[in-house]
Design a protein that fits this description.
Layout lengths: L9 E4 L3 H13 L4 E4 L2 H11 L3 E5 L7 H11 L4 E6 L5 H8 L4 E4 L4 H19 L1 E3 L9 E3 L5 H13 L6 E4 L6 H10 L8 E5 L5 H9 E2 L11 E2 L1 H4 L4 E5 L6 H13 L1 E3 L6 E3 L3 E6 L3 H6 L5 H7 L2 E4 L10 H15 L6 E2 L1 H9 L5 H15 L4 E2 L9 H4 L6 H14 L6 H19 L4 H8 L3 H9 L1
Parallel strand pairs: 1-2, 1-3, 3-4, 4-5, 8-15, 8-16, 9-12, 12-15, 17-18
Antiparallel strand pairs: 6-7, 10-11, 13-14
Helix pairs in contact: 5-6, 13-15, 18-19, 19-20
């Protein structure tokens, strides 16, 4: 059972009283506090009064449907996790429920253990969405970080964390720089069975190649010039705990083979030593590179890639989860106005609109840095565009540009980043991006998207899956 601060753990909404009774009886026996309602109106009233962590609700009910209630719940209480129930295994309503933000759905009749597993994971997800992850082991109130996000992509990540955290499986976190990969790693650690042991983070890109190996494995006295004492490495220090290797794609090739041996049999030797050292740690890795490409280029060991890639979590860039920008921005404003003792009440809508149009190449880290600087400079009650000195929105946002001008900006950006002029690859990537955006604009309707692009539905389906 998940310990919670909610007045009621679970709200059950179903027009069949016998189902409500049966579910309540089972969940109370498992130690959960529950309440039930036979229609949406009473269910919503109970939701406001009792603040449940999870709602278990039928899709089809007289009066307002479960889907209508779901849309209302996600609008008013986005962190409440909703599990939908349906008696129709082929229904499109179940698919619609997931699109509207349901945590998951169950097909009636279902096993009690199946419901219990979903509820346990949904409560973990709720905790993750509201919980605090402490960085660097500091207790200062300003050193805490929240995982912010209520978009479908972040919800999917929270679900993955809830599922993988209790195991000891290696996890590979992939995403661009600044997306919050270390926060995800710490969330996995905080919800794991090793949470009472050490968490050690090592940035493979920040440590010189000749020092990385000694940092990880340690060394004996006299192993090299200047080694005047024995040093215990990170793998040995973290026995029983969790090691986070950030930017593992930057790890030197010779070091990779030694990492592989530690992962395979849990033993290694310190530099300059003959003694075999045993260690037991969980490995979480992160990278902003495509490791499969590095494997093809013989820059990353294939066997190590398979070893660390047991579970992969892909963190989306900020531009792919614009729904979270407002929540992120207001979170950072609250943090820095308190830290800097500034009387700032919020952010103007015009500024937030501009944030959503901006590309954010530096992702969440860039947004936080911008808000920090802007709060320092702001002399008004509300943060406005004028305060955002580093964000030249008129030049960097392409939303008001013509198609030709926007293409010029895109192509210039590609070559500024040193991209190779691989025409076929660039065209395929651009084509897929246009199709993806059109599908998003049409709510996933393939017929409308195909008509908008002037192609057949079969062509659109083929190009979107290639």
């Amino acid at each position: 059972m998940i310990m919670s601060d909610y007045k009621v753990d679970i709200l059950i909404v179903d027009d069949q009283k016998s189902i409500c009774y049966s579910i309540e009886r089972f969940l109370k026996a498992e130690g959960y506090s529950t309440i039930s309602a036979q229609d949406v109106e009473n269910g919503m009233e109970f939701l406001e009064k009792h603040e449940p962590g999870v709602v278990v609700m039928d899709i089809r009910m007289p009066g307002k449907t479960g889907l209508e209630a779901l849309a209302l719940i996600k609008k008013r209480h986005p962190h409440v996790q909703v599990i939908m129930m349906t008696a129709y295994s082929t229904t499109e309503q179940a698919i619609e429920a997931i699109k509207l933000g349901a945590y998951d759905y169950l097909i009636k009749p279902f096993e009690n253990d199946e419901l219990l597993g979903l509820i346990q994971n949904a409560l973990k997800t709720r905790v993750l969405m509201e919980g605090v992850v402490t960085c660097n082991g500091l207790d200062d109130q300003y050193s805490t970080e929240k995982i912010i996000g209520k978009s479908s992509k972040m919800l999917s990540i929270f679900k993955q964390i809830g599922k993988v955290a209790p195991s000891d499986a290696p996890v590979l976190i992939m995403g661009e720089s600044g997306t919050g990969k270390e926060l995800i790693a710490r969330a996995i650690y905080n919800h794991s069975k090793r949470a009472d042991k050490r968490f050690l983070a090592v940035n493979c890109a920040a440590i010189p190649e000749n020092l990385l190996e000694s940092e990880l494995f340690g060394y004996e006295r006299g192993a090299f010039t200047g080694a005047n004492f024995r040093k215990i490495g990170k793998f040995e220090q973290c026995h029983g705990g969790t090691v986070f290797l950030d930017e593992i794609g930057e790890m030197p090739f010779p070091t990779q083979s030694k990492i592989l041996r530690v992962l395979q049999d849990g033993t290694f030797q310190r530099l300059g030593g003959n003694e075999m050292v045993n260690t037991d740690f969980r490995l979480i890795s992160a990278t902003n590179k495509k490791l499969d490409q590095l494997v093809e280029e013989k820059k990353f060991r294939q066997d190590l890639f398979y070893r660390i890639d047991t579970v992969t979590i892909r963190v989306p860039p900020l531009r792919e989860r614009t729904e979270d920008i407002t929540e992120l921005a207001t979170h950072f404003v609250r943090r820095y106005r308190r830290m800097l003792n500034k009387n700032i009440k919020g952010i103007t809508k015009k500024t937030l609109d501009a944030f959503e149009q901006y590309y954010w190449p530096g992702n969440v880290r860039e947004l936080e840095s911008l808000i920090h600087k802007s709060v320092i400079l702001c002399i008004r009650e509300y943060l406005c565009i004028d305060c955002c000195v580093d964000l030249n929105l008129e030049q960097k946002t392409t939303i008001n540009l013509s198609v030709d001008d926007a293409m010029d900006v895109l192509i210039s950006s590609i070559f500024e980043k040193g991209a190779q002029a691989d025409f076929q690859r660039l065209m395929l990537k651009f084509e897929k991006a246009v199709i993806k955006r059109t599908l998003k604009e049409t709510g996933g309707n393939q017929v409308k998207a195909a008509n908008a692009l002037g192609i057949s539905r079969n062509t659109l389906r083929k190009k979107s899956t290639n």
